[in-house]
C-alpha cells in the first residue's frame, strides 16, 4: 500500500478540495477557502483519552450524587446535588423538565465517557467501532457539565441572600470532572479513530483526476459508488445514507425551528419559578428574574442570566430564520458572515440550558414545606423544549447549502 505524503480532502463546509499533509505533527490543517478545520495533529492517543475518560467516570458519582453546596436554614443543613435537583423536579410534577436536566447533566456525561472506554475495549478485542464513533460525534454537544458549573455560581448568588451558603469538598470532584471532560472535547479526534480502525479505506492521492464524494458523518473523501438495496448511495466506511436531499434537511430545520419558536412564547410569558418567604409568594418570569438580580446589585449574574436565557434563544431563532430565508431566496450576502452566524448558533445553543440547571439546584436546596419554599413554574418545560428544538434545528442546517448558493451567485455574476 502506497502512502502519500499529501492526501486529498474535501472540506465539510464549503466542499473545497484541499491537499493535506499525511502527518501534521502537532499542527492543524485549515481549509484555505473557509478556515474550517480539516485535520488536527495535536490530538491525544486513544489510550490517553481512555485514561482520562476512566478518571472522569470515577469522579462523576462523587460529582452527581453527593452534595456540591449546602445552606443553613434555621440551623437545618440542606444539601444540593445534581441528582437531587432532578429527582425533586420529577417528584414535584415536572417529570419532562427533570428528564431534560438529567439528560444533559447526568446521562450524556456518563455516556460520553463510556463511549470512549468502549472504543478502547473494541481496539483491544479487535472489533470495529462504527456505531460507537458515530454516537461519540453526535453526543458531544449534549454534554453540559461546563454549563452546569456556571449554573452553580448563579444559584449561589441567588440563594446567598436567603440563607448561609457553603461549598462542599465534592465540588472539587465536579470541577475536575468538568475540566477533564472539556479536555476530552478538545483533544479527542473521531476522524483519526476512523482512519485507525478502518485502514483499508485509504485517502485519495493529491492527483486524483475525478470529483470525489464526501461523507459528512465520518469525514471520508472517497471515490467508490456504493448503492444499497433501496438504491441509496452509502458511505463505504460508516454506511451513512448520502442521498438525503437538501429539501428534506430544510424541512427538518423549518419544523424544529417553528416548534421551538412556539415553545418560546409560553416560556417567556409564564412564570418559570416562584418563591415563598414568610407567606409572601413571588413568581418570576425569565425577564423579571434578570430584573431581580439587577435590583440586588448582582449585575454580572444578571448579565449571564439575560444572555443565556433571553438574548441567546431569541438570537438563535433570528439567525436560523435568516439563514433559511437566505437559502430559499438565494440572497447574495457575505458567505463568511453567514458562516460566522452559523458557528455562533452551534456554539451558544447549549448555554441556554443554564436556567434549567439553576432551577434544579434551587429545587434541591429549597424544598416545599420549609419556611423558604421554591417551586418550578410551568414555563420551565416550554423553555427546555425550545432549547432542545433550536439545537436540533441548528444541527440540521447544512453549511454546504449556503456555500452552493454562494458559488451559484458568483458564477452568475461572472457571466
From TrEMBL:
Membrane topology, as annotated: Multi-pass membrane protein
Keyword list, A-Z: Cell inner membrane, Cell membrane, Membrane, Transmembrane, Transmembrane helix
Residues passing through the membrane, by range: 49-69, 96-121, 142-159, 165-186, 253-273, 293-326, 347-366, 378-397
Taxonomic superkingdom: Bacteria
Keyword Transmembrane helix: yes
Compartments, record wording: Cell inner membrane
Main location: membrane
Pfam families assigned to the protein according to its UniProt record, in alphabetical order: PqiA
Record has Cell membrane as a keyword: yes
One CC-aspect GO term: plasma membrane
Family: Belongs to the PqiA family.
Protein name: Paraquat-inducible protein A
Organism of this sequence: Actinobacillus porcitonsillarum
Amino acid at each position: 500500500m502506497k502512502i502519500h505524503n499529501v492526501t486529498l480532502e474535501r472540506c465539510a463546509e464549503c466542499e473545497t478540495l484541499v491537499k493535506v499533509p499525511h502527518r501534521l505533527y502537532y499542527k492543524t490543517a485549515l481549509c484555505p477557502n473557509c478556515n474550517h478545520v480539516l485535520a488536527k495533529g495535536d490530538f491525544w492517543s486513544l489510550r490517553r483519552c481512555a485514561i482520562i475518560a476512566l478518571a472522569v467516570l470515577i469522579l462523576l458519582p462523587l460529582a452527581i450524587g453527593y452534595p456540591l453546596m449546602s445552606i443553613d436554614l434555621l440551623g437545618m443543613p440542606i444539601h444540593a446535588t445534581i441528582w437531587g435537583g432532578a429527582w425533586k423536579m420529577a417528584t414535584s410534577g415536572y417529570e419532562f423538565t427533570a428528564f431534560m436536566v438529567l439528560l444533559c447533566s447526568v446521562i450524556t456525561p456518563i455516556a460520553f465517557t463510556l463511549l470512549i472506554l468502549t472504543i478502547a475495549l473494541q481496539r483491544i478485542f479487535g472489533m470495529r467501532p462504527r456505531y460507537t464513533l458515530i454516537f461519540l460525534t453526535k453526543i458531544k454537544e449534549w454534554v453540559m457539565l461546563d454549563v452546569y458549573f456556571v449554573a452553580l455560581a448563579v444559584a449561589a448568588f441567588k440563594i446567598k441572600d436567603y440563607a448561609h451558603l457553603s461549598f462542599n469538598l465534592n465540588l472539587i470532584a465536579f470541577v475536575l470532572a468538568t475540566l477533564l471532560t472539556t479536555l476530552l472535547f478538545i483533544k479527542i479526534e473521531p476522524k483519526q479513530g476512523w482512519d485507525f480502525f478502518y485502514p483499508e479505506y485509504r485517502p485519495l492521492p493529491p492527483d486524483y483526476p475525478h470529483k470525489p464524494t464526501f461523507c459528512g458523518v465520518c469525514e471520508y473523501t472517497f471515490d467508490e459508488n456504493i448503492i444499497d438495496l433501496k438504491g441509496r448511495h452509502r458511505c463505504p466506511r460508516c454506511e451513512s445514507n448520502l442521498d438525503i436531499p437538501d429539501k428534506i434537511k430544510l424541512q427538518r430545520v423549518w419544523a424544529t425551528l417553528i416548534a421551538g419558536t412556539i415553545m418560546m412564547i409560553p416560556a417567556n410569558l409564564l412564570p418559570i419559578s416562584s418563591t415563598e418567604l414568610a407567606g409572601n409568594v413571588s413568581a418570576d418570569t425569565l425577564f423579571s428574574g434578570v430584573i431581580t438580580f439587577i435590583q440586588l446589585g448582582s449585575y454580572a449574574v444578571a448579565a449571564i442570566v439575560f444572555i443565556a436565557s433571553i438574548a441567546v434563544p431569541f438570537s438563535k431563532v433570528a439567525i436560523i430564520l435568516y439563514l433559511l430565508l437566505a437559502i430559499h431566496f438565494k440572497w447574495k450576502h457575505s458567505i463568511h458572515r453567514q458562516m460566522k452566524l452559523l458557528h455562533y448558533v452551534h456554539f451558544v445553543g447549549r448555554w441556554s440550558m443554564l436556567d434549567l440547571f439553576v432551577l434544579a439546584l434551587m429545587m434541591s436546596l429549597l424544598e416545599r414545606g420549609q419556611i423558604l419554599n421554591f417551586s418550578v413554574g410551568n414555563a420551565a418545560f416550554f423553555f427546555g423544549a425550545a432549547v432542545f428544538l433550536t439545537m436540533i434545528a441548528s444541527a440540521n442546517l447544512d453549511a454546504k447549502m449556503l456555500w452552493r448558493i454562494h458559488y451559484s451567485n458568483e458564477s452568475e455574476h461572472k457571466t
